[in-house]
């Protein structure tokens, strides 16, 4: 989570505009790749992969970019409103195709619950899971 100092950086025009521009350029390039190459992957997903790759090569995230990303993630629920409106507009389709949708969603939801339980296990038990390749992987640590 960004610190108050990082939020102040975002509020300066230069830091904010540069960081938003970086995010939007990655999304634009991803959209261009998706449409231009006819890929079945959404452009924003490709843009996210490009941004991640760029940040890995760079080795760090600037405080401005971190703060802008934190602000976007903090208000992410607002971005789901259009999706909710789309669902309501297509209730007829959902009513018609409820079985295949349910067959796809129920197992995925169950798998997600299992992943969350496994991720929360160290907090509940106070022990970390063994990880192959990690030093000392032969024993659980307290």
Number of strands: 0
Low-confidence stretches: 137-142
Strand content: under 5%
- Please give the count of helices: 7
Secondary-structure element string? HHHHHHH
Q: What's the N-to-C terminus distance?
A: 27 Å
Shape: extended
Largest sheet: none
The percentage helix is: over 70%
- The whole-angstrom Rg is 21 Å
The computed structural class is mainly alpha
Average pLDDT reading: 77
What distinguishing features does this structure have?
7 helices; 142 residues; disordered C terminus
Task: Note down, in words, how this protein is organized.
By secondary structure, the protein is mostly helical. It has helices at residues 4-11, 13-37, 43-58, 63-74, 81-89, 91-96, 98-125. α1 (4-11) packs across α4 (63-74) and α2 crosses α3 (43-58). The longest helix has 28 residues, at 98-125. The model is unreliable at 137-142 (pLDDT under 50).
Short structural description:
With 142 residues, the chain is mostly helical. It is built from 7 helices and no strands. Helix 1 (4-11) packs across helix 4 (63-74) and helix 2 packs across helix 3 (43-58).
What's the helix and strand layout?
Elements: H1 4-11, H2 13-37, H3 43-58, H4 63-74, H5 81-89, H6 91-96, H7 98-125
Helix pairs in contact: 1-4, 2-3
């Amino acid at each position: 989570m960004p610190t108050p100092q990082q939020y102040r950086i975002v509020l300066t025009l230069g830091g904010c505009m540069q960081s938003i521009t970086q995010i939007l350029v990655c999304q634009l390039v991803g959209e261009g790749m998706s449409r231009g190459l006819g890929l079945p992957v959404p452009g924003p997903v490709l843009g996210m992969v490009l941004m991640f790759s760029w940040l890995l090569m760079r080795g760090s995230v600037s405080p401005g970019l971190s703060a802008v990303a934190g602000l976007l993630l903090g208000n992410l629920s607002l971005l789901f409103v259009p999706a909710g409106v789309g669902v309501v507009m297509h209730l007829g389709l959902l009513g018609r195709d409820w079985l295949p949708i349910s067959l796809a969603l129920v197992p995925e939801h169950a798998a997600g619950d299992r992943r969350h339980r496994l991720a929360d296990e160290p907090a509940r038990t106070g022990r970390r899971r063994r990880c192959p390749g990690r030093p000392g992987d032969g024993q659980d640590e307290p």
